[in-house]
């Protein structure tokens, strides 16, 4: 070999087939750290959703924190038995609270929780205090309306007045109407003692260029003329209103920390049960839900799946479902464990409970499983 001949450079041998090259410790460590980072993000990353979960259950015929949940005075009452459960929905997330991606995924998998976009329920500027205040107002209103519906069902007369609840600053009503004014008539249409007075007032304002209102202020009648203006894109005079009921009985509710209007139907049933002889349930365990109007119409609510889960967990054997919630109730994971009856009115609800108490389950109004006629019966 000559001195200038190129030197041979050794080439690393290929590893035997079936063997793997080992990763360097640094690469393996980096990969592991990234995995943990991605997991942490999945667990801790807030998402714009809120979760509906089964909430606490309250027996409207029983006690709450040592006192009756509903007590009636001013009329003869009767002992009762069994349970008429009002159902609630717990909410995770929403304004002022975070929901994390892992929670949302878990809720989708367990079948008893519902994941909904927060914006579908609340405007972006809604605060937690706004939600709490709104829920409290709705609960208070639902109690008054439940009493009114029960009085209607029992043919007990009552009166209702429409009051100014607040006046919007720099609105047509400012300086003319005051909080507490009793609205007697609008453009010649009687408002006082009409359960639909708020709707009549609102419709008249929308349809009129001039609104002539007769009010009662501190026992004196006054006539006031207003010109509706544009308030947040709506034709309005700038007042919020509330109903003030006068009932022949005094009903007290002991429900702290629960909001919303969905207990109205169960409240009304419990009041009727206390004011009529015998136990409406026959000692059985009934649960249900539904917003109610003074004339006894039962309206749909949110969280029906969660309420079915809560009812079955507590051992209820009959679930009263508003007609418009039937599809959601029948899709609930636990609905096969309980008898479901469809209700459209308070009278439907009372009749259904009484039939069930008597052992007549064959003729209960049922939720149609396939979109059939809502008047179809049988369970």
UniProtKB/TrEMBL annotation:
Query: Which keywords does the record carry?
Result: Membrane, Transmembrane, Transmembrane helix
Question: Which residues are in the PDZ domain?
Answer: 162-219
The organism sits in which domain of life?
Answer: Bacteria
- Pfam families for the chain: Lon_C, PDZ_2
Q: Which organism is it from?
A: Brevibacterium spongiae
Keyword Transmembrane belongs to the record: yes
Q: Which residues cross the membrane?
A: 27-51
Protein name, UniProt field? PDZ domain-containing protein
Q: Which Gene3D superfamilies match?
A: 3.30.230.10
Q: Which residue ranges have biased composition labelled Low complexity?
A: 1-11
Is Transmembrane helix one of the keywords? yes
């Amino acid at each position: 070999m000559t001195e200038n001949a190129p030197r041979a450079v050794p080439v690393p041998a290929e590893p035997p087939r079936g063997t793997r090259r080992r990763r360097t410790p640094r690469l393996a460590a980096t990969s592991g750290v990234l995995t943990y980072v991605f997991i942490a993000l999945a667990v801790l990353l807030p998402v714009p959703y809120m979760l509906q979960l089964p909430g606490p259950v309250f027996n409207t015929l029983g006690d709450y924190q040592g006192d009756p949940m509903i007590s009636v005075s001013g009329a003869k009452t009767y002992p009762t038995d069994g349970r008429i459960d009002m159902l609630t929905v717990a909410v995770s997330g929403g304004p002022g609270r975070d929901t994390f991606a892992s929670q949302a995924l878990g809720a989708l998998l367990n079948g008893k929780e519902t994941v909904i976009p927060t914006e579908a329920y609340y405007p972006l500027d809604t605060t937690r205090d706004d939600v709490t205040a709104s829920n409290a107002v709705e609960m208070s209103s639902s109690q008054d309306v439940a009493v009114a519906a029960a009085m209607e069902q029992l043919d007990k007369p009552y009166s209702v007045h429409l009051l100014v609840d607040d006046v919007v600053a720099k609105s047509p009503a400012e300086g003319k109407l005051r909080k507490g004014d009793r609205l007697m008539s609008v453009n010649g249409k009687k408002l006082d003692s009409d359960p639909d007075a708020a709707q009549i007032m609102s419709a008249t304002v929308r349809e009129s260029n001039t609104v002539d209102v007769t009010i009662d202020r501190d026992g004196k009648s006054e006539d006031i003329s207003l010109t509706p203006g544009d308030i947040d894109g709506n034709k309005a005079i700038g007042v919020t209103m509330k109903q003030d009921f006068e009932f022949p009985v005094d009903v007290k509710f002991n429900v702290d920390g629960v909001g919303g209007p969905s207990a109205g139907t169960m409240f009304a049933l419990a009041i009727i049960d206390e004011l009529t002889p015998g136990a409406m349930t026959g000692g059985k365990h009934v649960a249900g839900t539904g917003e109610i109007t003074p004339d006894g119409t039962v309206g749909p609510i949110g969280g029906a799946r969660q309420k079915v889960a809560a009812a079955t967990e507590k051992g209820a054997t009959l679930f009263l479902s508003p007609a418009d919630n039937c599809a959601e109730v029948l899709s609930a994971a636990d609905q096969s464990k309980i008898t479901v009856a469809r209700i459209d009115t308070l009278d439907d609800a009372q009749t259904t409970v009484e039939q069930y108490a008597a052992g007549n389950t064959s003729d209960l109004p049922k939720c149609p499983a396939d979109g059939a006629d809502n008047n179809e019966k049988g369970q």
